[in-house]
Structures are given as C-alpha cells and as structure tokens.
Amino acid sequence: MMKIDPGTSLLATLLFFACWPLVNAAAESPAAVPRGAIVDRHVTARLDQLDVQPAALTSDTEFLRRLSLTTIGQLPTPNQIREFVADPHVDKRGRMIDALLQHDLHSALWATRFCEWTGNDFETLAAGDDVKLALAQLWHRWFRERVAANTPYDQIVRAVVTADSRNDIPLDDWIDKEIAGIQALRAGNPPSGVDRESLELFYQRTDIQDAYPVRELAERVSSSFLGVRLNCARCHDHPFDRWSQDDYQSFVRFFDQVRHGQSPELRRALSERLANRRKLRARGESPGPPIPRITEVYVAERIDQSELPRPLDGARDFKVTADARASLMDWMAATDNPFFAKNLVNRAWAHYFGRGLVEPLDGLTSHLDDATYPELLDELAREFVVSGCDIRWLERELLNSAAWQRSSVTSKTSGGDPQNLARAEIRLPPAEVVVDMWHDATGVERQFGDPLFRGFTAIEIGPNRLPDSPWDAFLDQFGRPERSVTCDCGQKRRPSIRQVLTLMCDPKRLADLSSGHVARWLSDDWDDEQILDEMFLQTLSRWPTAKERQAALDMLQSGPRRQAYEDILWALVNTTEFITIH
Amino acid sequence: MFPIRRRIQHAIARRQFVTVGAAGTIGLGLADLLQAEAEQDRADSPAKSIIFVWLAGGPATLDMWDPKPQASEEIRGEFESIATAVPGVHFGELMSQTAKIADRCTLVRSLHHNIPDHVPGSQYVMTGNPPNPALEYPSIGSLSASLLPASAGMPAYFCLGDAASSGGGFLGAAHDPFRVAIPSQPAPLSLDGLSRPESLTEARLHHRRQLRDVFEASFVDSRRQIDVVPTLTEFQQQAFEILSSNRIGQAFDLSTETDAVRERYGRSEAGRSTLTARRLIEAGARFVTVGIGGWDTHSDHFPIMRRQLPPLDQALHALIQDLAERGMLEETLVVCGGEFGRTPKINAGAGRDHWSRAMTYLLAGGGLSPGAVLGETDPRGFAPIRDACSPDDLSATILSQLGFSPSHQVQTTAGRPIEMFINGTVLTQIVG
Description:
heterodimer, A: mainly alpha, two-stranded antiparallel ribbon, B: alpha/beta, Alkaline Phosphatase, subunit A, eight-stranded mixed beta sheet, 16 strands, DUF1501 domain-containing protein (chain B), Alkaline_phosphatase_core_sf (chain B), DUF1501 (chain B), DUF1549 domain-containing protein (chain A), DUF1553 (chain A)
C-alpha cells in the first residue's frame, strides 16, 4: 500500500544533474539560467570541496508538505497529495512551486512576516480601542495586496519608510476621505489597503513626538530592512560591530521630522469646518454628522540644520532632501547598497531553509564573518536587484534548488549539520502556521474571536493580539514574535513542554479531535482503510506504513470505533513528524 | 567546520553527566553547556527554590513594614506602628502576624528606582534590569527556573494569579511560567493544558501513547539526533511523566491538607495561593510567583488596606512558619513586594499614588540573615538615607543565593551571550 514514489524523485535527481552542463553555459540574464542554479552551483562546489555527499532529494509527499507549509502556511489536502503524486510530468515540482507562489494565502504569509518586521504591534499602535483591531488588520492587508500584485520589494519598503497620511491628496479631499474611512472602520468595515499609497500606520505610534519611539523606528528600519542591529550603539559604541554612537544618532535623525497628530495646516482646516458648522447651526440649519477626531502622520520642517542625517557608512556630506526619509530610501534602494537586497535575501532564505545564511538576521555587519555561504548571499542579492526586486523570482530560485529539496535524513557522509546545506533542517513552523495546521488536521472550524476575522486562516489575521480568543495564549506558547522588540533578538522558535502538553491534554484541543473530520468520516460511511489513508494524508501528508496501519486497525478492534478514531488522530497530531517542517 | 555541532555534542555529554536521573529543562545549545557548568559550581548554594509573593499595583510598604510614627498625619496615615520580634524594628499595626516572626524575616527598606509606571516598573523589578526595547529580559523566575535542575514530572516555574513581566523574555517561550489563575473565592481551578483531564482516563492515555510511539518511530528513527528532534523527544517524555504522575494536579488539590493548615493560611486568595506555592515547591517546582492584585490605591487607601492587609499578613506568617516547621525555610527563599511603593503624602482623595523612590521588600529564608534590616528611609519615608539599593541589586542577591554570580552569562534564543545583572551588586549585608 506504500505510495511514496522513490522513482519520481530519483528521476528528478537524475534530470537535474543531467542539466548541469547547461548551467555553466547559461547566459547572463537570470531568466535564462535554470531556476535554482545559482544556489546549487555554490552549494555543490562547497560539498565537493568538503567531500560531503548530500542527502537525496526528498520524496514527492514530503516535498509537497514542506512547500505548502512554507509558501502558503497550510498543510496540503489529501486530494492535492494524491493528484501531485499521480502527476507523471517530470517538471511537476517546478509547476507546483509556481502554483503555490500564486496562491492567495502566499501573500498572507508574507504579510504576516512584514507585520513582524514593521512592528504591527497592538500595544504601540496609536488608535482608539474601537478601531485598533481593524487598523492592525488593514496593516496586514496593505502588505498582502502588494505582495499578491508582486509589487517590487523596494517599492513596498519605500511606501513604508517614506509614508505620510495625505500622499499629496488636497487637504479638504483628504479630510473627507478620512472621515468616511473612520466611519467605515467603526462600522466594522475596514477599507481596502490598495488605495492607500503609503503605510502611514508604521508611524502612527503612541508618543511618537517623544524622542524615544523615533529612535525605535530608526532601529526597526535598520534591523528589518538593512539587516543591521544598531540598538547597541544607542548608549555606547557598538561592542562587536563597527557602528559608533555618532553613526547611530546620525541615522536616527532621518526620522526626527515625522509627527503623528495634527499639523498646523490640518488644525486650521478643521477649525474652519467647525466654524462653518457653528454658522449653520446659528442659522437653524443642520450641520450634518459631527466631525470625528482626525490625526495624521506628517513631516515637519527640519529646524536644526547643524546636525544632518547620514546613512550607515554614508559620506559626511550626504545630501538630504526636504523629507530626509526620501533620501534615506534612495540610498537604501540604490543598486549598490551593501545591505538592502542582501537583508531581504537572507530573511527569505531563513524562512525557507530554517535559518539565515547570516545569523542573527540583523547581524549583516556584526556576524558577516560567520556567514555560511557569503558568496552565494552576494550573488543572490545582486541577481535579486537585477530581477527588479522581484520577491517571487527569489523564491523560485530558492525553492527550485536541489539544496532546498533535499531530505532531512542524514547519510553517513552528509554530516549532522544542516548549515552546509547537505540536508534539510527539521524545525518548528511559525506559531500562526501551527494554528492553521491544527485546524487542517482536526477539521474544526476556525474561530478567532472578533467577527472581523470570520473565515480567516491564522496567517490572514494581522494583529498580534486576539482579544477574547483562546488562541491568543496558544500563539504565545508557540512563540509568536514580540513585535515591540526592535531587533531580531527574541524571535527564534523553540519547543517547550508547554506546547507539547497543550496538544496532548488541553480539554479544548481534545474536544477538537472528535468534532471535526472524525465526525464527518464516520457519518459518511467510509470504511476503515479509507479513513486511515485520509487521516494520515490529512496530518502527516503521507500514507501509513504497513506497521502503522496494523497498529491503527488493532486500536479499532479494541473499542468503540469513534473513540478509537479520536485516539488515532490524537496519536498522529502528537508526533514530531506532525509538528515540524521537515 | 562544525563548531556548533561540536558544542552541542559537548553540551549533551556534559548534561548527561550532570543531570543523571533528572529530566533536563531546556533545549540543546550553548545555553546547556553554560548551565551544566554552572550546576557543578553551585552544589553548596543556600537556596534551592523561591516563592515570590508579587503585590501587583505597588503596595504602600510605608503602612506595612516601614511606618513613620514621627511624621505628620498627612504622611503617617491612620495606622499605629507596633513593635516586632526584632527590638527597635516596627511594623504597621495591620502586619501584626508577620511582626511576631520579624526575627525570621529580612527587610530591605532602601529599595528604589525611577520608574513610577506599572508596566515598565514591573518590568524593572521583575527582571532586575531597566526596560530595554532592544532586549526583553527574562523574569527572575524564568531565569532561576532555567538554571536550576528540574525534577521529573514537575515543571520548574509556576505563576499563580496575575504578575506582569513574569515571562521568559529573551530566553524564549519555553521559559514562560506555567500560569494558573487562582479564583478570588474558593472555587475549582482550571488546570487545562497542565494535567490529564478526567475525560482522558489513565488507561486511554496509555493506549494513545503506545499508538503514538508506533507512529513516532517511522519518522524519528532515522532522525533521532538531529535539529529539534532530541529536544522534542525529551519534552514529550517529560509531558508523559507530568500527565501520568499527576503531580501538578495533586499539588493544586488543597483538600488533602488538614483543616488546621488551611485555616492557618486562611481561605483568602492570598492564603490559598501561598499554600499552593508551598505544595508546588514540595512537589519539585523551583520557582513559584504568587501574584496578588489590588494594591494600586489612588483613593480610599485606608479602607482598602484594612481589607487587603490582614489576609496577606496571615498568609505570609503561615507560609514562613510552615516552611520553617517543615525544615524547608533554609532552602526556600520567600520574597514579597511589588513594582514600587506609594507616595508618603496622602493625596486629596485619601489615596496614595505611585512612588518608586523608596519601598520595602520583605524576604525570609534561603540563607539570608534572619532579623536583619538593610537600609533606612528618611523620617518622612521619601527616600533611602542609608544603603540605598536597586532592583538590580535585589535580583543579583537572589541569583547569588541560588549559587550563581550576578554576572552569570545566559544565551538569548538568537545565541547572543548576556550577562544577567550587569549593574547588580549582591547585598552581602543581609546574607547569613
């Protein structure tokens, strides 16, 4: 009954290596190079040099599971697995990669990551309690829509770094639009993010006028978009990096013109409107609905011209535009910027391979010497810029490589260490993905508290708090990142006994086992063999082995059928195989 | 070529050597090596476990343990000051029970800092480090529990009730406490996710485990030693031990105590949670934080104190006496205090506001000198005039009583080594 197909994988491997000569003869343009070739050229050279035999390519079922969990954050469905395994085309992996990169949830997973990088943080978002969740959702959607449209990465970042509220819309039109937007939000009807040219929410923080949060924004931009952790230089010259306190302060100055509140202009316009309302009322006419409190993110004029902003490693006479952030962004997005593209490549790499080529992810200057494949990082960053900062180009390059498609099983010579990429690393999925995996595996309906999230998977939610939802504590247990921290300091996912216990014995999770798939399968009158296949495919994304099938059948003989199925499902979701990406 | 792998192998070897028979606490990494090394150096440490009674909101320690009978009435307040078992040391009248055992306690009357805000103030006192957006420090509970050897079938760190900033910080969620809400009135507890619910019988859990082991084997057999697999395997074993031993459930079951003991602690929230804390420590937990709220008395301060203090006084007295009678006080450090004190001057609403410039901490056991009093505040209670000390110093002292240097290095989950209390100095004056 084993349906894992070593034949196909072997064939793919052979074909892949048969293509090798082509790689070396390929033209300069990335489009002409077989996908994945950049990665494999570097990795193969290194492994040859070390005389390390890489692990075999992973099976089709494991490939599909790994791909699905990392690109769209969901387990593959049993039918997807069956179709994929039965697909006779030799290029089916590449086509599946393309398909999942176009999937609707692909952008949601990226948006969740962007929310972490930009600090979509419930605690620091400056907004009324009645609209906070909706704005945090909008924050997520803003990124999601752009990733879905394959907006070049540099343009996405530019619209964050240089964001303001009005985006050159005439003031009166903007006020009208803002009033309508607030009303829609309060009605639980958040507007689309598409028509917001920039993400001013990034600057809409409590107490932004105080010097302290401005510093945090600078630290965040540096960590998230340049891969450089500057925080240490706040109080003293960086102990193991080249940044001085002067570098730090010069960088922070890029952000010291940003304000959140009411610009003098906006204040004037609003008081005019209020005066008009008074006039109307005095004449006995109705002034219409009241004007809600309106605030904006705006840029004040630079007063102190003596100490100007300067980018990292920037020249002393760096030219600054009226809104200094624009010149910062020009510097960041310049094709020869040493950090910007490399940072994104490293972060995407960490997502797909389990760890960055440089760790920590914001150690691009402090830990570059420890990089596992520095030349590969360089080349990928260069080609990423040539591609027009096309995120999907980068993903295709990573996912099509043999390095990414390797099994996690070690052979004697492939070594225990996944760092040289001779095998895949086994790791925990992000907290939101664990929540989705649990729902997929048990078949229970997703409910995350607020009606705003109706019908959402966990990776589509956005906010880092779920008021009134038991999943909030679950997400914390599984290591949801602290978005208030401005560096990549506490973001590693690690197992804990708490996680294990929750899945094993929390009454809410135990109840899930009986109410979803199991109830349906039993009422649909399937036979045991069918149900067992389905259960294994639904949880472990593979068919049961003969031994596993027998153990499950024995369980079914020993007691009431429904209870036995709950037991089998419990046993499946409490395995290491279920809870990891492998 | 494989420095990390070598370190890990070394750590495993060391760990097996050091904690034979006991379940380890955390995942593999350099942290384990540091831990294993540290454990060898701390065989003679005085304290083995800690109960931290956290008074959330900031208690008016002026009315409790540092009365100012000579000050004007707008500072002195309504309460008389009473003599204690230590000559010359006075408490507020509502602390009459703890006053009788003041000679078993150790007072720090000169703790101060400069953050009179609940969240960052709690962060400072709970972690022993000023709040820092670049680094979320672990609570002293998470830190201690991560360093001390765990016992099989029992998690190392519990938090009963509410206590801000009591989590694992940069040590990771694996070091968050096991939180259990204690109802304000006696009522059944929810131990969801901590112990085997009745619906899952022991026999059924056993069958499930056997079946799981069959499923587990096909994947794990060829991957036993790599990546997160060994850590997960260890945690799964520990989880099964916790579920089958039911030590957590038993520790929370106060009905097995005699009525006399339960009356001694009191049926109040403070009484029930401190008694539970003692039972958890007995069952093998290393650090229990007991969060008791209601101390943020901006108005109607005195009636609230008359309601709040007697049950706390009774519970602390019972806890310290009970630990002593059971021979546990020497090895168990009791710590009691909040994020700050309250304004000596009573406000217009008959309340006291936030005041971080002076507060008292009450400690007992764990190798501290009984009856010692460190520091003194001015006659109006505004600020320390002698031996002023910081939350860093208090945390350094706690860590030192557990057998670790205040500059003990731990690793963040991202692998960065951090010295724990870089600004903390051990308060040697109160160490026994």
